[in-house]
Amino acid sequence: MTRWKSLGHKGDFTENIIDHVNQIYEKRGLALVSKIPVPVKVTQISSGQITQAFFEKKSTVDYCGVFRGISICFDAKETNKDYLPLQNIHEHQVEYMAKFKKHGGFSFLICNFKTHGIYHFIPFEIVAEFWRDAKSGGRKSIPMSALDQQYIIPSQNGLPDYIVPLSMYIRTTTKGCYF
Question: CDD domains this protein is in (predicted)?
Answer without folding.
Answer: RecU-like (cd22354)
